[in-house]
Amino acid sequence: MSVILYKIDALAYGCRYCYAFSSFTRTRALSLRTFFNLHHHRSVSSISPFRYSIIPNFSFFPNPNLLTRNTHFLKIKGVCSGSSMSKNKEMVESLRRFGVISSNKVAEVMETVDRAFFVPNGAEPYVDSPMAIGYNATISAPHMHATCLQLLEENLQPGMHALDVGSGTGYLTACFALMVGPQGRAIGVEHIPELVSFSLENIKKSAAAPQFEDGSLSVFASDGRQGWPEFGPYDAIHVGAAAPEIPQPLIDQLKPGGRMVIPVGNIFQDLQVVDKNSDGSISVRTETSVRYVPLTSREAQLRDQ
């Protein structure tokens, strides 16, 4: 591949890999494939570079206050005119256009659950970036939500049970609820009580409100590392923070045939897909490398504020 002299519109908020690349390209050219190897956001073998935005002389804008979740090469701005829902739909269409979303069901759910209800006041909800939500927590970038929904789609069928660990503002829990339907069960677990209250307020404003009212969607204040066994075993488990290793209680609460998506690691983290086979054995594979906040105790998380 020829040498690239361009910088990438990488939406570098929270990405130390992008930041390092930005500094590196000030002094020398770097091939795009080498950049992908450094960047770690998606496996090199699965990427077509031309699916992403390569813009000559584009400056990076790293934000050191958001050194948290994975980022994407796509920059989506909430600048279209019209209603909040039309902007949300444009965000989803942009993710589809850039190949992040390939599932019609995932697109439908993300169009239905307006992200604007789940971000802090004054934030731009439709930008493909993680956002701080207080208490040393973040809401993931839209492309990470889409990735996790697609990985779990077959385990989020009507009537199934889903667990969202580290549910934050409640966005992904609401998406799970719509996918499993009122005959299923969507559970969010968040160890910051203030975020539990915030997430419930958000859910009540969203398309998932009827399922909160009928009891098929619930959010609890608890240590997510212990899961929520009352409504297990679960067909789908999502973990929104990086564990040093996969917590055994979550493995135990995964139903045979179920799937868990969890970031694992400390400095270097991988988004791992954990499948429980019919005989109870576990298969684990790595989907991509990521950067999430740590899955830790409430006290440790608040101590770092």
From TrEMBL:
Q: Which GO terms describe its biological process?
A: methylation; protein repair
Q: Which SUPFAM superfamilies match?
A: S-adenosyl-L-methionine-dependent methyltransferases
What is the enzyme's main class?
A: transferase
Q: What keywords is this UniProt entry annotated with?
A: Methyltransferase, S-adenosyl-L-methionine, Transferase
Top-rank taxon: Eukaryota
Pfam families found in the cross-reference section: PCMT
EC numbers on record: 2.1.1.77
Q: Where is the signal peptide?
A: none
Cited CDD domains: AdoMet_MTases (cd02440)
GO CC terms for this protein?
cytoplasm
Single annotated GO MF: protein-L-isoaspartate (D-aspartate) O-methyltransferase activity
PANTHER family given in the database record: PROTEIN-L-ISOASPARTATE O-METHYLTRANSFERASE, PROTEIN-L-ISOASPARTATE O-METHYLTRANSFERASE 1
Give the UniProt family note.
Answer: Belongs to the methyltransferase superfamily. L-isoaspartyl/D-aspartyl protein methyltransferase family.
Q: What is this protein called?
A: Protein-L-isoaspartate O-methyltransferase
